[in-house]
Design goal:
This protein has eight helices and two strands. The chain is mainly alpha-helical. It has a single domain, classed as Alpha-Beta Complex (Sufe protein. Chain: A), CATH 3.90.1010. Strands 1-2 form a two-stranded antiparallel ribbon.
Length: 139
């Protein structure tokens, strides 16, 4: 998965529909999420499309790093999920637990680039990611 800074560099160069195309491309680049993991337990509430996020991890305590599998049944929403995941993927759990993910995503100006129903679930995605990070960091 690409680094968020690399994605932003490309995103800032693009306009309008090209940005949508980049989001769709990012969604396609996500690690495949097996259908068996797409359950009610991994479903993110409050999203206009179905979004599933499944946390995995490597290591324990201070060495614990987060890795997420995610998917959506809508291409642009899947791209937004990929942005959220790019901000936290393979980072130490303690770092993610303290991170301001919304601030990391602010340069993408998603609220002005996308309709409100496409972005309404972003805070819920972030909350789920941070909750898992905090639980892992405290383990």
């Amino acid at each position: 998965m690409r680094e968020l800074s690399d994605i932003l560099e490309e995103y800032e160069f693009l306009e309008g529909d090209e940005r949508y195309a980049l989001l769709i491309e990012l969604g396609r680049e996500l690690d495949a999420m097996p259908d068996a993991l797409k359950t009610d337990a991994t479903l993110v509430r409050g999203c206009s499309a179905a979004v599933w996020v499944y946390p995995t991890e490597a290591g324990a305590g201070d060495e614990a790093r987060l890795h997420f599998l995610a998917d959506s049944n809508a291409a642009i929403t899947k791209g937004i999920v990929a942005l959220v995941i790019a901000a936290v993927q393979d980072r130490p759990a303690r770092e993610v637990a303290q991170m301001d993910v919304m601030e990391a995503l602010a340069p993408f100006d998603l609220k002005n680039q996308l309709s409100s129903n496409r972005t309404q679930g972003v805070p819920n995605m972030i909350a789920l990611v941070k909750e898992h990070a905090a639980r892992l960091a405290d383990a």
